[in-house]
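**User:**
Everyone, produce one record:

**Assistant:**
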Amino acid sequence: MKLFNLLSLVSCCLFISPIFSIAQQLGSTFTFIRLNSYIGYVIDVPENNMCNCINYAGSNFKYGALVQMPDSNIVFRMKMEGRDNFINVPLSEMEVAGLSRKAADAQLIVSDEKVEQALIKEMAGDTTGVRLIDYFELKYKTPLIQRDSVSVPVIDYSNSYSFINIGVGFSFGKGDHDFYMAGAELGYVLNQRQVFTVRLLGHKEPKAIFGNTLPGERIFEAGLLYGRKFNAGLVSFTLNAGVLYASGIFKGKLISRTGGIGFGSASSQYESVPWNSLGIPVKAEMLLGNRHKSIVSIAKFANINVRHSYEGILFCFRPSGEYRKS
């Protein structure tokens, strides 16, 4: 009888042990959630620059991932410069959905799969199990922690700021209309994605080498533009369009021409033809630098109108990357 009880106890232990082991493993499993095929499981700095997914971590952000913890709550688990431990930022269901939408802006694979696997292993730490799922497979087993009820130990970091560009360049229109130009742009970047710009440019005809022609052709323009910004680390791009008012003076018919004996002494007088028009400005711009430092940019632009359409190239310098946080 005692032998039978002993055998029963041993059998019971042998049966329960694997079940207990499995339960223990499931109970300490980190579930990493893949946001999409471009971002993958881990968001690093280049990917964050593309999608602006983590705008509250500041410039010390290194990498992070959307993780379902063993208690089924969802956190963004991230590593910061200067900190040995990982930070878990609890997310509400709405914030998780918002992160997924932002990640959809990333349209380029910039991470190495082996590096990503190593980072996942590092973030999992001493947990006994790692599970990988896609975002659409995520199931919320318990109510998620709301952000306003938790003190989050990260920096509140705004991605909206104003800027001033100072630029020079050249432009040209249909026929013999070539200009030097200079001007300035006052703008505002909203959440690192939307760009609002007020632009003032003056265009002036270069002085003739072999004589003098009057009147000197010129254009003044003032425009309002709206654009979208696409971030890729230290290089970013904007596409802009809007409405613009332009006015100027062009040459009409030749009135008189006088010759001179010396070099450059010839003179030509033309009719002065003033004009003005509303137009549609478009601009594609490439910027080098970041919002905290000086930025240089090159922009290809055009003003489309019914009187005198023209296009050109503008080289800009932003004396300091940011003038005001919002």
Q: What stands out?
A: Helices lie at 2-27, 45-51, 93-103, 113-124. The first helix runs from residue 2 to 27.
